[in-house]
Design goal:
By secondary structure, the chain is of the alpha/beta class. The chain has helices at about 15-30, 65-70, 95-125, 145-165, 185, 200-215, 220-230, 245-255, 260-270, and strands at about 10, 30-35, 45, 50-55, 80, 85-90, 125-130, 170-175, 190, 240.
Length: about 270
Amino acid sequence: MKNVYGSRVFVTGASSGLGKACAEAFAKEGCQVLGVSRSCEETVTNYPGGGSLTLRRMDVTDDASVNAVAGALDGVDIAILCAGMGVSGPAEELPMELAKRQMDVNYFGVLRVGRAILPKMRAQGRGLFLVIGSIAGRVPIPMQSHYSSSKYALEAYVEAVGMEMRRFGVRAVILEPGDTCTGFTDARQKYVPPAGSPYAGVCEKSVAAMERDERNGRPPSSVSDVAKKLAGRRNPPVRVAVGLPYKALMFVRRLLPDRLARFVLTKMYLG
């Protein structure tokens, strides 16, 4: 693996899914990886070639936890922020506590870690700041409005960070996976509309379609492979859709009128 940034790698959400795939992939390439998650067994694994993966507990929604772990690091060359979760349900009815939880993990969790990591990258004059977004952050999905909103917010944040940090040698990129087969699907917090709701039935069908596509989706390695390639680029793009089908989708989406795009998405997920 070509790596122009350095071997000190920090990964959130490292105990499962995309985070685990990224943490293990970089450790196998000889990097010293610190992987964190809210609940994991704290271990150290050494790999042939000199790489290692250290797992520690850290909660991206807790300031003290982030400061104690990420804030205590001497330096970070590559940060890969994968911690995230999903909620589903109609925007009109979804309980506010679920909406707040969605933003706290997916958006404010990235901000907390960024505030701890970015000063270190700026001080050392280099760094690659990778954030896991989603195709849903470019193409909003019905019954996942709050998840899409959290990923939309990351699009703006990462692009702004990239502009602010560029003169300090730091590059910021948002990766945009589509349907990927991970534990994210089973961990989704689902609000089920009660009987009598105008969304009863259609919400369950929509979420079932999402889950089917995710379980038949690409492997986590599809994301870690892209992350490794970006580590070799001094001037990476701001955003990268993961996989040729999703790159094509983003190209087509730019050409479609909004009305037609909404019609297609409505037919796909709401019937």
